[in-house]
Amino acid sequence: DPRYDYNSQLQPIDTSWWETLVSRLARLLQRLFHGLDAERASGIVTWSLVAFFVLALIAVIWFIWKKRPSLFLRNKKLGMDYEEVT
Prior knowledge:
The chain crosses the membrane at residues 44-65. By secondary structure, this protein is mainly α. It is built from 2 helices and no strands.
């Protein structure tokens, strides 16, 4: 009897967080643009999210480059002091 199946709430979810995010954003696009089919909407959302994450990664690298350029450059003048071990 499904009314007494208390373990049904404890079952693992079959979809990943990425699929959930894409499907929710695709549904939002379908509500905004009524003539858009589900497959095309999810494709648009997927590539938009990929582009967003790539741009965010580039922005973080650029920000670190501006604040600490020494992390990306090699300074030949800085030498390590070696101690002689005897």
